[in-house]
Amino acid sequence: MPDKKVTIHATRYDPDKDEKPRLQAYEVPFYDESMVVLDALNWIKSNADGSLSYRWSCRMGICGSCGMMVNGTPKLTCNAFVRDYYPRPILVEPLNNFPVIRDLVIDMDDFMHKLKAIQPWIIRKQEMPLGAGEHRQTNEQIDDFRQFSQCINCMLCYAACPVYGLNDEFLGPAATALARRYNLDSRDQGLKQRLPVLADPEGVWECSFVGECSVVCPKGVDPAKAIQQTKLDTTMRFVLPYGNRE
Amino acid sequence: MSTEAKAALREFRWHMPANWWTRNRHYFLYVVREFTALPLALWLLWLLVEIKRAGDGPTRYAPHESTAFVVFSVIVLLFALYHSYTFLSLTGVIIRLKVFDRPVPPRLITLAMFGAWAGASVVIGFVLIWFAR
User: What is the pTM of this model?
Assistant: First the structure.
């Protein structure tokens, strides 16, 4: 067993017993320089307290399940190295701005509804039969939306967004970035279906450009850019005489 | 009450603390940026009053000349320059422009915006000096 230990302060909340969340401290062996905060939580679950609840899956920054507040900043815990915090204690809390179901598990229903509302799939006015062949794209056409397609729906951007924290009716960063991804896709024809959601008062216009959503994104997506570009596009459609063209 | 509704009641509802903007440097700078719009709006309201007075004739026109107002105006000018700088710096990110099917580099768009800003400032300055003569 290694001598080095790190203190993890994890949020505990049992809806059947607790009025509000509380913190519990655990001493965890810091056994490897490549150890991440998720490893520390897994050690607690296996060795100290099997009742600790949290979400995780892939352990490689792809699934977006293990997002939590680490020392006050939204992080994927599989991507937050313990060595970056050691020897200071690490505070692990559920993502800000979401209701807490238990311990580190948040209720993500609101985000799922918003995601569905922007219809994040390719919409065609008329579906072509499979036999008609594929929809081809050039590299330049893919470059138009590539970065927005990297979103893994981890919701770190929502936890970082004070606008969403103050008004949970706001459509939010990731949903807008994904709407932008499909609106910029040369194969998609669903802009008119998405516009009512995007141009709604609680859509892109609610954003006052704090920019923290883009700072915390673990995949380098720039949701703030997607929101501001959408504002410009919707304005142009309103102002220009040919703005409502298909 | 449905099982789902009962479960929802047991969730802990997270609320934004009043001091949220002190918890992160970016949040603090954001609030400062937003706050600078307030003195700017007050100065512009005062400008409207001055214009109204000027419209009533030379005898009614008495511009504010106190040192405090000059200092306030200089501070407001700095705020306005800060807003203009932050706004124009972002134009390269926000504006998507293609020429002959090739995207215009964001840096070029930003430089063009700053150039247009400088050009417009020179023209407005020239017009104001022209009328003041």
Answer: 0.90
